[in-house]
UniProtKB/TrEMBL annotation:
Its EC number is 1.8.1.4. It comes from Veillonella rodentium. It comes from the Bacteria. Residues 4-329 form the FAD/NAD(P)-binding domain. This is Dihydrolipoyl dehydrogenase. Disulfide bonds join 40-45.
Length: 505
C-alpha cells in the first residue's frame, strides 16, 4: 500500500488544496477521472461565459439606438465563438502537465474509490487498477453532473446536457429551434445564448417562475424581458413525454395546475434540470461517510465529513453550486490544515454571504435572503428598491422609466437592527454591482456558527464549545480575501489583488 500525506480527488476547486500542500512539500496523490480543471473550466462557467459575452453584445447593440448610435443588426459569428470556446477548453490540458511536473505530486488519471475509510484505489482510465493508497487526510471534490429527468421518450429522442454540449454534441451551427427543460441559471443562460444566435427558443419550466431561487420580483423582471425579446416561456409544466415526428422532437407538457397539454416541436432539447452529486464511483458504502438522501456528502462548517480527516468541498456537498464557493471552501481547508497559526486562527464556512450570479440578459446578482425568505424566517422585514432609470447613469445609458430593461436593485433589511439580510440586482453589470454588500455582510466580529451539528470531530466539538469568533475587519485585505466574489465576473480583477498581496497558494 502506498502512503501519502494527502489524497485529493477531483481537480476543480480541490486543486487549491493541492497547491497549498504542494508548497508545503507534502506527498500528494491527485486523482482525476476526467478533464483537468473540472466542470467550471471545461463545461461550465468559462465556456458558457465566452458564449454569454457574445450574446450580451448582440443584445447591447439592440439598445444602441436609444443613445444615438446607428449600427446594423448584430449577428453572432458561431464559428469564431466556437473557436474561442474550444480554445479555452483545450488550454486546460496543460493543467495536467503542471501538476505532473512536481516531484511530490503523483497524478492518477482514473476514478478513485474507497476500499475503507482511509484506503482508496484508482480505476485507471487506460485500464487496470492502481495499488491501494492511503493518507491521513482525504479531500473529496468530485463535483456534480446533470440531473436527467425520467421522461418517457427522452433517451430515445436524444437530448443535450451541458456535458454533451461541451462534448461530442457541440453544435456546428445554432439550432433552428431549441426546447430548454429547466430555467435555473443553466437554462436561463443557454436560452439567452441561443436566442441571441437566432435560435427559436422555448423554455419549459417545472416551477411557476424562472430562476426560482432568486427574489420573486427578479424572476418576474427576467420573464418580462425574455418574453419581450421573443423567447417562448412555458411555466409550471410537467414534461410527460417526448415524441419524434418528421425529424423533430415533440416535447409534450402538462400544466401542473390546469392540466392543459402543450406540445413544443423543436430540432433539439437541452436538459437544464439541476445537478446530482458525483459520488457513484467513490463507493462511499465502504466508509463511514454520511450523505443526504440524494447522495450529497454531509459536511460541517469546517468541511469535515462524518469520518475524521476526510473533507468534502464544492458541488458534491450539496451547498449551492458555484465555483467561487468551491474555491472558498478549498481555501478554508488549506488554511486550517497548513497555514493557521493556532486553532484560534481557524476559518469556517458560512453560506449566508454567498454571492450568486446568473449571466442571463438582464444579468442577475444576489446575496442573502430574498424578501419571501426573510419574512418566512421571522424577521421584521423592510425593503428598499431603486430602478436604474432613477439615476443619472441610467439615463445616460438610455434606460427610461417603464422600459422593459429598466432593471432594479432591491435591498432586504431587518428593521429591528437595520442589518442587511439580502441584496438583489437585475440589470446591466449586476454581477459587480452588489459586491460591496457581500463584503459588508461578511464583515464584523463573526461567531463560529455550526452547520450540520451532528458532523463533529473532537476538535470541532472543542472549537464550537469555545465559542470561537473571527474578526472580519472590513478594512483588512485579509477580510477581502476571505470574502467570496462571483466567478467569473470583472469584480475578480479587484478582489484577487489580495491573493497577489499575500502570495499564499
Ligand atoms: C453549464 C454550467 C455553467 C456554470 N456556470 C457557472 C458560473 O458562471 N459561475 C459559477 O460560479 N459556477 C458555475 N457553474 C457551477 C460550477 O461549474 C460548479 O459549481 C463548480 O465547477 C464545482 O466545482 P467542484 O470543484 O465542486 O467540482 P468540479 O469542478 O465538477 O470537479 C470535480 C472533478 O472531480 C472528478 N471526479 C468525480 N468523481 C471522481 C472520482 N471518483 N475519481 C476521480 N475524479 C473524479 C470529475 O471528473 C471532475 O473533474 C456552472 C455549471 C454548469 C454546468
Ligand atoms: N452563473 C452561475 O453561477 C451558474 C450558471 C449555471 C449553473 N450554475 C449552478 O449549477 C447548478 C445547476 O444549474 P441548473 O440551472 O441546472 O439548476 P437549478 O436546480 O438551479 O435549476 C433547475 C431548474 O429546472 C427546473 N426543473 C427541474 N426538473 C425539470 C423538468 N423535468 N422539466 C422542466 N424543468 C425542470 C426546476 O424547477 C429548476 O428551476 C445550480 O446549482 C447553479 O447554481 C451556476
Amino acid at each position: 500500500m502506498k502512503q501519502y500525506d494527502i489524497i485529493v480527488v477531483g481537480t476543480g476547486g480541490a486543486n487549491i488544496v493541492v497547491d497549498a500542500a504542494q508548497k508545503k512539500g507534502l506527498k500528494i496523490a491527485q486523482i482525476e477521472k476526467g478533464k483537468f480543471g473540472g466542470t467550471c473550466l471545461n463545461r461550465g462557467c468559462i465556456p458558457t461565459k465566452v458564449m454569454v459575452t457574445a450574446a450580451n453584445a448582440v443584445q447591447e447593440v439592440e439598445e444602441f439606438k436609444k443613445i444615438g448610435i446607428n449600427v446594423s443588426e448584430a449577428t453572432m459569428d458561431w464559428n469564431t465563438i466556437s473557436k474561442r470556446v474550444w480554445h479555452v477548453i483545450d488550454e486546460n490540458k496543460d493543467i495536467f502537465k503542471y501538476y505532473d511536473a512536481f516531484d511530490n505530486v503523483d497524478v492518477y488519471r482514473g476514478a478513485a474509490s474507497f476500499v475503507s475509510d482511509k484506503v482508496m484505489k484508482v480505476h485507471l482510465n487506460d485500464g487496470g487498477e492502481s495499488e491501494e493508497i492511503t493518507a491521513p487526510i482525504i479531500i473529496l471534490g468530485t463535483g456534480g453532473h446533470s440531473n436527467i429527468p425520467n421522461v418517457p421518450g427522452l433517451q430515445e429522442a436524444g437530448f443535450l446536457s451541458s456535458e454533451s454540449l461541451f462534448g461530442d454534441k457541440y453544435p456546428e451551427k445554432p439550432y433552428k429551434s431549441l426546447a430548454v427543460l429547466g430555467a435555473g441559471p443553466i437554462g436561463a443562460e443557454f436560452s439567452h445564448v441561443f436566442a441571441s444566435a437566432g435560435t427559436d427558443v422555448t423554455i419549459i419550466q417545472h416551477n411557476v417562475r424562472l430562476v426560482p431561487k432568486e427574489d420573486e420580483e427578479v424572476s418576474a423582471h427576467l420573464l418580462e424581458n425574455y418574453r419581450a425579446r421573443g423567447i417562448n416561456v412555458v411555466l409550471n409544466q410537467d414534461t410527460v413525454e417526448i415524441r419524434q415526428e418528421n425529424g423533430l422532437k415533440v416535447v409534450v407538457t402538462k400544466d401542473r395546475t390546469t392540466g392543459e397539454i402543450t406540445e413544443t416541436k423543436v430540432e433539439e432539447i437541452l436538459v437544464a434540470a439541476g445537478i446530482r452529486p458525483t459520488v457513484q464511483e467513490l463507493h462511499l458504502e465502504n466508509t463511514g461517510i454520511t450523505t443526504w438522501k440524494n447522495g450529497w456528502i454531509k459536511t460541517n462548517e469546517f468541511l469535515e465529513t462524518s469520518v475524521d480527516g476526510i473533507y468534502a468541498l464544492g458541488d458534491v456537498n450539496g451547498e449551492p453550486a458555484f465555483r467561487h464557493r468551491a474555491n472558498y471552501e478549498a481555501d478554508i481547508i488549506a488554511h486550517n490544515l497548513f497555514y493557521a497559526t493556532s486553532e484560534k486562527d481557524y476559518r469556517w464556512a458560512r453560506y449566508d454571504t454567498l454571492p450568486k450570479v446568473t449571466f442571463s440578459y438582464p444579468e442577475i446578482g444576489s446575496v442573502g435572503l430574498t424578501e419571501a425568505e426573510a419574512i418566512k424566517a421571522g424577521y421584521n422585514v423592510g425593503v428598499g428598491k431603486n430602478y436604474y432609470s432613477a439615476t443619472a447613469k441610467g439615463y445616460a445609458m438610455g434606460i427610461n422609466p417603464g422600459d422593459v430593461n429598466d432593471g432594479f436593485v432591491k435591498i432586504v433589511v431587518d428593521k429591528d437592527t437595520n442589518y442587511i439580510l439580502g441584496m438583489h440586482v437585475v440589470g446591466p453589470q449586476a454581477s459587480i454591482l452588489f459586491q460591496p454588500y457581500v463584503n459588508l455582510m461578511n464583515s464584523g466580529v463573526t461567531p463560529l456558527t455550526a452547520i450540520n451539528e451532528d458532523i463533529a470531530s473532537e476538535q470541532t466539538k472543542r472549537l464550537r464549545a469555545q465559542g470561537l469568533t473571527r474578526n472580519m475587519d472590513p478594512r483588512s485585505v485579509i477580510t477581502v480575501g476571505e470574502t467570496m466574489s462571483p466567478h467569473p465576473s470583472l469584480i475578480e480583477v479587484i478582489m484577487w489583488t489580495q491573493v497577489y498581496y499575500e502570495h499564499r497558494w
